[in-house]
Write a structure and sequence with these properties.
By secondary structure, this protein is α/β, with parallel strands linked by helices. The chain folds into 4 domains: 2-96 and 287-305, NAD(P)-binding Rossmann-like Domain (Rossmann fold); 99-277, Rossmann fold; 318-452, D-3-phosphoglycerate dehydrogenase, domain 3 (60s Ribosomal Protein L30, Chain: A), CATH 3.30.1330.90; 454-528, 2-Layer Sandwich (Alpha-Beta Plaits), CATH 3.30.70.260. It has 18 helices and 22 strands. The protein has helices spanning 14-21, 36-42, 59-64, 83-89, 101-116, 119-127, 153-163, 178-184, 192-198, 218-222, 241-250, 288-306, 322-326, 329-345, 366-382, 391-397, 468-478, 509-517, and strands at 4-8, 26-30, 48-51, 70-73, 92-95, 145-149, 168-172, 187-188, 201-204, 228-232, 253-258, 277-279, 352-358, 401-407, 415-422, 425-433, 439-444, 447-451, 456-463, 483-491, 496-503, 521-528. The strands form 4 sheets. The chain has a 7-stranded parallel beta sheet, sandwiched between helices. Strands 14-13-15-16-17-18 form a 6-stranded mixed beta sheet, with helices on one face. A 5-stranded parallel beta sheet has the order 2-1-3-4-5, with helices on both faces. Strand 4, helix 4 and strand 5 (92-95) form a beta-alpha-beta unit. Helix 1 (14-21) runs parallel beside helix 12, helix 5 (101-116) packs across helix 7 and helix 15 crosses helix 16. 41% of the residues are buried. The protein binds nicotinamide-adenine-dinucleotide and (2R)-2-hydroxypentanedioic acid. (2R)-2-hydroxypentanedioic acid binds next to loops.
Length: 529
């Protein structure tokens, strides 16, 4: 089998690279600082790429990256990656959202302290052999009010640490529940203006989005307390750099600590050179500990995606905890099997897919199972162009309505049932997952079974009369097809039955035609699951 090709284009830890290189089925290239033109020329050869924050993974990039299946972002923010473009193409984007947050929180605090105590200005003075303490007086953080914009992972870590400094912490984040504010002992600001009016120090920890770019500009700075101190260890441009530079010159802003700038990695900010400004070149995640965690974790995720496994940190899939994922694997396999049956047994284009989850199955992350059903449904007609990432989009672009229903309740049997409609014709299939995570097919077209799906299966509808099984066995035997398992189900009042056989090898078209021609066989389909 051909080896999958991975390229690492930005620096990750040696441990991460070693992990990739230890995979026998991967060919790994590590090449940093590749000029953009050259990268676009070579990226078409690779199945996976690992980047950090500098590489722009955009439309132009995707057009060149014809074989790409996964983008690994060694870090947290994905603002350099066009997620929609990846989703459209079925490319999975993975990141390491937890691995560097402690380092980023600590660096935030470092910048806060350095800018409040003129550390950089003091160092420059000493380097020019000047010992002049009168112009270096700083301020304490003790009993001051810290305003946090964005109370997510890093905002929360900063909160806990600055509460130990006995700062009063207030925060503005309209997207998190009040309970989190309460649990952290943080005063909730209903509006940004509320925070601006109260805070002595402001630190921002939001992602870079349409809503957050230039979130703090000229007007917002006017609403702050005179002499406010700012920190940004999130993304360049959340504070408008020109407005902050002007406000520093006017004395409205006393200092700013910045790890990030709008123009990285070639900064041209008006803040550069101001003595009230402490700057670092996006070092928030650059610690030994964070880089080890990031490198190992991104390598593992990329390997898992290439091996067809689900990963907890896929940015363009619903987020799951690793424990939740464990309990899902059998359901994802079941969903794909149920979906795959349709286009291998029927020809009519699908209008609607209805999925009902019953009993324990209803308590799972069902959107993911529905995606696996859609992936299975479209697999026979789209092959590798459909996967868990773009399965929903594939349904939408084909005008297929997808409806999910749930029937909770401990007393209910664990069951996933699928009804696929084409005009007024319907196709149904259902299954369950055993406690050992093995999927079982329990119903196809109203016939009931308890069958563990296998790679190759024959489904044959027949008249419910003696001799049918014998005829099938003889014919398959003559064609050297070994039957591994067989179940027959009947609908007594109709005189109809359906056999499902799992077989050890593919069944040739000619053999299938002979089966379909047997006396009493109504239809015969060979399916690959
Ligand atoms: N400097 C570095 O090296 C470094 C390292 C890691 C992360 N980061 C950056 O730090 C930032 C925060 O990361 P995180 O892991 O804490 O993210 P997170 O997703 O855990 O938290 C972000 C929070 O921002 C909130 N938010 C979003 N839009 C908002 C708005 N308009 N107003 C107020 N709140 C809003 C969200 O509700 C969320 O709670 C990101 O921009 C990330 O890229 C930087
Ligand atoms: O070091 C990097 O690649 C950026 C780190 C950080 O900004 C992140 O979002 O993880």
């Amino acid at each position: 089998m051909d080896k999958k090709k991975v390229i690492v284009v930005e620096r990750i830890s040696d441990k991460g690279v070693e992990m990739l290189k230890a995979q026998p089925d991967l060919e790994v290239t590590v090449k940093f600082d590749i000029p953009r033109e050259e990268l676009l020329k070579i990226v078409g050869d690779y199945d996976a790429i690992i980047v950090r924050s500098v590489t722009k993974v955009n439309e132009e990039f995707y057009q060149a990256a014809r074989n790409l299946k996964v983008v690994g972002r060694a870090g947290n923010g994905v603002d350099n990656i066009d997620i929609e473009g990846a989703t459209k193409r079925g490319i999975i984007v993975v990141n390491t959202p937890e691995a560097n947050v402690i380092s980023a929180a600590e660096h935030t605090i470092g910048l806060m302290l350095a800018s409040c105590r003129n550390t950089v200005k003091a160092q420059k003075m000493i380097e020019s052999r000047v010992w002049d303490r009168k112009n270096l007086k700083g301020v304490e953080l003790y009993h001051k009010t810290l305003g946090i914009i964005g109370l997510g992972r890093i905002g929360t870590l900063v909160t806990k640490r600055m509460q130990a400094f006995e700062m009063k912490v207030i925060a503005y984040d309209p997207y998190i529940p009040d309970s989190r504010f309460k649990r952290l002992g943080v005063e909730k600001c209903e509006t940004l203006d509320d925070l601006l009016a109260k805070a002595d120090v402001i630190t921002i920890h939001t992602p870079k989005t349409e809503e957050t770019i230039n979130m703090i500009g000229k007007e917002e700075l006017k609403k702050c307390k005179k002499g406010v101190r700012l920190v940004n260890c999130a993304r360049g441009g959340l504070y408008n750099e020109q407005a902050v530079a002007d406000a520093i010159k006017e004395g409205q802003v006393a200092s700013i600590g910045l790890d990030v700038l709008v123009d990285e990695p070639k900064p041209i900010s008006p803040l550069i050179g101001l003595e009230q400004c402490v700057l670092t070149p996006h070092l928030g995640a650059d610690t030994v500990e964070a880089q080890d965690k990031v490198g190992i974790s991104i390598a593992q995720e990329v390997v898992n995606v290439l091996n067809g496994q689900m990963v907890p940190n896929a940015v363009n899939l619903p987020a799951l905890h690793p424990q939740e994922l464990e309990g899902m694997m059998g359901y994802l396999q079941l969903g794909e099997c149920l979906g795959k049956l349709y286009y291998q047994m029927e020809k009519d284009p699908v209008d609607k897919v209805e999925v009902v989850y019953e009993g324990p199955a209803a308590n799972l992350e069902t959107t993911l199972i529905t995606r696996s059903i859609l992936k299975g449904l479209f697999d026979p007609i789209l092959k590798e162009r459909v996967n868990m990432v773009n399965a929903e989009l594939a349904a939408e672009t084909r005008g297929v309505a997808v409806v999910e229903g749930k029937m909770n309740g401990e007393e209910r049997m664990n069951r996933v049932s699928v009804k696929i409609s084409s005009g007024n014709k319907t196709f149904t299939a259902a299954g369950m997952v055993a406690p050992d995570e093995t999927p079982h097919i329990t119903e196809v077209q109203g016939y009931h079974y308890d069958l563990v799906p296998e790679h190759y299966m024959i489904l044959a509808k027949n008249d419910d009369k003696p001799g049918m099984i014998g005829q099938m066995g003889t014919l398959l035997g003559a064609a050297h097809v070994n039957i591994a398992n067989m179940q027959v189900a009947r609908k007594p009042k109709t005189g109809n039955a359906m056999m499902i056989m799992t077989v050890d090898s593919p069944v040739e078209k000619a053999t299938l035609q002979m089966i379909a021609g047997l006396d009493g066989i109504q239809s015969a389909d060979f399916v690959t699951l």
